[in-house]
């Protein structure tokens, strides 16, 4: 069944002035000339290694991307959020409308737009896969109860374009629609890039089955569920096969990791692969990044938490790096790497596959074919693609493991080989982790060098971080681009950042001018840098950034960092108990821009100025500090002043310089970690007072003497005991009379709610007649946490499912259980889906148990 409606633009170029948003230019003009060597952006992050680099960009350089020359040129309205990355094809001949450089945008309302890439206006064409008059719509998020993607679920995965397929080139895209109550459909479409019309054999409905013993298996077969399975990762095209990858919505059960492959010409299914046919979960999330493709055509992917088979033969591969070789209608796992703490990752929902896979071009050293991945924990893994390392309970066997190197990874790193001034040619990777700053690591002789060569500490980006991309003219003129989408849940503004890719010096951010507002943020979005412009999808519009001919106009604003994420300050200790940062505000001139409907951007009117807060930290002696520079709460450090003896010329060192604790249930104290303190002086003793820690952390042991001899050492043990949910940071304060060296150790951890397990994760009832009642099926709830779990409401099931028995009020800690029984009592024939909703103080509340039944 083909569901498609196509609208072709009429006199599109003459209506630019009425397009919603800020349009700086209007009217017909010639197609912008292509950058030398640039052929288009046909897939997510530019290439199948997912490097995110466009090496044919000479217009946008560190010298031209400045606040006075670069900014928002225009916007084009769209009908829903664009989670997919915009794609770009130059010199497309649109029937009856001439030749255009075209940018393609897909939305959650199941629409695909083709816009002129160089000027605003109605779309050249718009294809829709819904028909509200016939009751066919995008899937309302309320049908799932998941708040991660709201209010509509339609096209989420970035499409892929084959410019040589079909008569004019083909765009492949996956739609998800609701046909009616309880009926859902996912389809793969092949659209002509010049008209938006379906190509031959398109669309094809997505279905799949594999043999397995998972809880949702029926007669030994596990089936693809078009409602529960989410096609988040980008589509991948390799050797004539279009690959689709799936996880779920909010971990709602039952789901599995699927990869399905379709012949790009005939649209027939060629590959079916399931990561957990005998278990559960193991989805492909990767923050929107599609599987990588190695030079031999193998797919490279990373799975999220789920069942993992420690022994052989292996069928289930949760939290694993996978090399997948297509053949015989499926894919074989020809190499894999699974960290030894996989069970912990699975239990604590710390997906390895929360971030994307970056495949590196050939590197010098013993392992030429490398890849990089990092999950929610923030550990960077450097893996040999040819021999990934498998699973070894005695120790991980990958090439390199860097714990806590980045913030939790909900994004994909970028790669660039570029010339760094005074250094020369370097291989560099770039990360923007969750609640972390942009970082640049050098790879030398096949290993990641630490610490990061440079970072921009002012530009902290909150969850989910960002997937950076690189534009450069070969090995020169590199710019790192990133979108701060941390305000996505409240429909706050997206922020576009640009940094010099050789040293992370900030060049531009769209918060500097109110007129550069791209629109409300979308989680996981990736900018597309193409032919002198930057394209950014938001919840309501496509925003196009570029250079202003003749400049933005006077006055030119000072390029001042405007922090949109939580800016947590840490003061360097001196001979005072603590330091209280104070904020001074500097007014920064901001030009007020008025658009003129001419062929190029102009400015009119009298410039106005807007105060842009620039946090400037000033240390002020005090005994109690509350170091915050925003309204967001930050741990308050309360230190007890201790009379110290006269300072001495000695240096204290401490290892490690910081401690990151695993997540702990609120009210429970975790395992201790040690800090070794050393007096490096050769002849001077140091007087030590008892160490102090911030709230939420506890000193559990301290063997440091009151007087430490020259060259002496001691150990302080600290544990994390969170008092509230959420991320917590603090300090272990070393109190001594040494004039130099370490005075504080950074501490961080996360307080979490107790976690509850459900067995099984869904209930499937036997078929019964209308007005009959099935036998009761039970769900057992288990509390493995060290604190009790209390229910805040009685469990409730959606009709025609009914709760018949309930022993759950409070579940005792450390293995306590309770049960809930449900029956199926349909009044009409048909298939039924429902949920059993649990409301409690455990993580993930309200939890939902999926219910399935049929009336014969």
Write a short abstract of this structure.
With 856 residues, the chain is mostly beta strands. The protein has 1 helix and 69 strands.
Global mean pLDDT: 86
Radius of gyration of CA atoms, rounded to a whole number? 28 Å
Portion in helices: under 10%
What shape does the CA trace take?
A: globular
Outline the low-pLDDT stretches: 10-29, 554-644
For the largest beta-sheet, the strand count, sense and barrel status come to: 6 strands, antiparallel
Q: How many runs of DSSP E, i.e. beta strands? A: 69
Label the structural class. Answer: mainly beta
> How much strand content do the residues show?
35-45%
Number of helices: 1
Query: End-to-end span in angstroms?
Result: 26 Å
Structure description:
There is one protein chain. 1% of the residues lie in helices and 40% in strands. Residues 10-29 and 554-644 have low confidence and may be disordered. The protein starts with a strand and ends with a strand. Strand 34 and strand 35 (476-484) form a beta hairpin. It is an all-beta fold and 856 residues long. Strands 8, 9, 10, 11, 12 and 13 form a 6-stranded antiparallel beta sheet that branches. Strands 50, 51, 53, 55, 57 and 59 form a 6-stranded mixed beta sheet that branches. It is built from 1 helix and 69 strands.
């Amino acid at each position: 069944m083909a569901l498609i409606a196509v609208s072709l633009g009429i006199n599109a170029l003459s209506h630019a002035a009425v397009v919603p948003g800020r349009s700086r230019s209007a009217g017909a003009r010639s197609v912008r000339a292509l950058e030398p060597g640039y052929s288009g952006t046909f897939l997510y992050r530019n290439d199948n290694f997912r490097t995110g680099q466009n090496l044919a960009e000479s217009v946008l350089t560190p010298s031209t991307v400045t606040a006075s020359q670069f900014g928002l040129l225009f916007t084009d309205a769209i009908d829903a959020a664009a989670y997919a990355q915009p794609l770009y094809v130059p010199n497309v001949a649109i029937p009856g409308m001439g030749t255009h450089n075209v940018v393609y945008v897909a939305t959650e309302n199941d629409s695909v737009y083709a816009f002129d890439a160089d000027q605003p206006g109605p779309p050249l064409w718009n294809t829709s896969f819904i028909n509200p008059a016939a009751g066919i719509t995008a899937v309302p998020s309320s049908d799932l109860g998941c708040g991660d993607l709201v209010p509509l679920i339609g096209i989420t995965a970035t499409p892929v374009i084959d410019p040589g397929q079909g008569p004019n080139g083909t765009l492949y895209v996956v739609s998800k629609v609701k046909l009616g109550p309880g009926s859902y459909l996912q389809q793969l479409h092949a659209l002509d890039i010049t008209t938006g019309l379906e190509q031959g054999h398109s669309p094809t409905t997505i279905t799949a089955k594999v043999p397995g013993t998972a809880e949702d298996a029926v007669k030994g077969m596990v089936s693809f569920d078009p409602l529960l399975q989410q096609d988040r990762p980008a589509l991948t095209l390799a050797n004539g096969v279009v690959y689709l990858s799936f996880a779920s919505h909010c971990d709602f059960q039952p789901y599995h990791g699927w990869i399905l492959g379709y012949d790009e010409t005939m649209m027939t299914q060629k590959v079916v692969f399931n990561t957990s046919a005998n278990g559960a979960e193991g989805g492909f999330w990767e923050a929107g990044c599609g599987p990588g493709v190695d030079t031999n055509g193998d797919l490279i992917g990373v799975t999220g938490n789920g069942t993992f088979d420690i022994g052989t033969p292996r069928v289930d591969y949760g939290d694993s790096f996978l090399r997948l070789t297509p053949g015989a209608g499926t894919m074989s796992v020809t190499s894999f790497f699974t960290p030894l703490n996989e069970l912990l990752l699975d239990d604590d929902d710390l997906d390895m596959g929360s971030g994307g896979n970056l495949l590196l071009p050939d590197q010098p050293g013993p392992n030429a074919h490398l890849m990089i991945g990092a999950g929610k924990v923030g550990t960077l893994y450097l893996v040999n693609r040819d021999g990934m390392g498998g699973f070894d309970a005695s120790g991980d066997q990958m090439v390199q493991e860097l714990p806590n190197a980045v913030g939790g990874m909900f994004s994909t790193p970028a790669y660039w080989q570029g010339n760094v001034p005074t250094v020369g040619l370097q291989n560099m990777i770039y990360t923007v982790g969750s609640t972390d700053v942009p970082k640049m690591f050098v790879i030398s002789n096949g290993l990641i060098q630490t610490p990061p060569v440079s970072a921009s500490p002012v530009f902290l980006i909150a969850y989910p971080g960002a997937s950076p991309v690189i534009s450069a003219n070969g090995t020169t003129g590199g710019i790192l681009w990133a979108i701060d989408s941390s305000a996505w849940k409240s429909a706050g503004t997206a922020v576009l950042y640009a940094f010099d890719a050789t040293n992370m010096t900030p060049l531009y951010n769209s918060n500097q001018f109110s007129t550069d507002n791209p629109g409300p943020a979308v989680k996981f979005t990736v900018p597309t840098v193409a032919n002198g412009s930057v394209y950014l999808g938001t919840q309501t519009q496509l925003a196009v950034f570029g250079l202003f001919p003749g400049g933005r106009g006077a006055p030119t604003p000072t390029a001042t960092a405007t922090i949109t994420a939580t800016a947590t300050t840490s003061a360097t200790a001196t001979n005072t108990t603590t330091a209280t940062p104070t904020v001074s505000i500097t007014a920064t001139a901001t030009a007020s821009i008025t658009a003129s409907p001419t062929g190029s951007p102009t400015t009119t009117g009298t410039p106005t100025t807007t105060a842009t807060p620039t946090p400037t930290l000033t240390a002020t002696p005090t005994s109690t500090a509350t170091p915050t520079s925003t309204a967001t709460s930050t741990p308050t450090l309360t230190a007890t002043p201790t009379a110290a003896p006269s300072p001495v010329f000695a240096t204290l060192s401490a290892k490690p310089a910081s401690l990151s604790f695993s997540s702990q249930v609120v009210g429970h104290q975790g395992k201790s970690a040690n800090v070794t303190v050393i007096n490096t002086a050769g002849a001077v003793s140091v007087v030590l007072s008892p160490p102090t820690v911030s709230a939420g952390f506890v000193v559990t042991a301290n063997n440091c003497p009151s007087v430490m001899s020259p060259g002496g050492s001691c150990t302080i043990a600290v544990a994390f005991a969170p008092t509230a949910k959420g991320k917590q940071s603090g300090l272990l304060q070393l109190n001594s009379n040494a004039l130099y060296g370490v005075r504080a150790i950074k501490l961080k951890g996360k307080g979490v709610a107790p976690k509850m397990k459900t067995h099984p994760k869904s209930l499937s009832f036997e078929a019964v007649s209308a007005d009959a009642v099935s036998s009761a099926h039970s769900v057992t709830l288990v509390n493995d946490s060290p604190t009790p779990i209390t229910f805040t409401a009685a469990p409730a099931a959606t009709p025609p499912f009914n709760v018949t028995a309930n022993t759950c009020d409070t579940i005792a800690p450390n293995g306590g259980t309770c049960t809930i029984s449900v029956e199926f009592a349909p009044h009409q024939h048909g298939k039924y889906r429902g949920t059993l909703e649990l409301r409690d103080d455990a993580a993930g509340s309200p939890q939902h148990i999926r219910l399935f039944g049929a009336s014969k």
